[in-house]
Amino acid sequence: MAQEITHDQANGQAIQPQLALQKIYVKDVSFEAPNAPQIFQEIDEADQPQVQLNLGHTASDLGNSLYEVVLTLTLTCTIGSRTAYLAEVKQAGLFGVAGFNDADHAGVIGSYCPNLLFPYARQVISSLVLEGGFPPFLLQPINFDALFAEQQRRAMGGDGAPATLNS
User: Fold this and answer.
1) Residue 47 is part of which domain span?
2) How many domains does the chain have?
3) Whole-prediction pTM
């Protein structure tokens, strides 16, 4: 595999790929227990709670090779048809990303950065659920490399060819 090397126009030196984590922070957090306190009685008597996790991420180019990556985790727990709790965190990070070819750059932003943010988001979710009065919940690890590869495959139309729309 050939590696793309960019050159600094001013002095002709090669720019090596650089990735620098500058800051990790909670951008937004929310916890709701819409059916409390009655739901606490139902937890003890009810069926197994059903938990659904939705996740996503966004990246914003802030200029000067600086990117904000935001990982969003939304955890919804239901008992029967009633919502026990809804916990959401937007865990963010500022990353300096420079000198990567396009494919590697996309992989850093789409896989590496969310993977780095995940343990922080998982801890916030766990704390929210526990402090909300519910049994502890620990999210299992997520394979962001596989998710990114699947996203790339879908973007290419599933067979390696660019996606096309039929009218």
Assistant:
1) 14-134
2) 1
3) 0.82
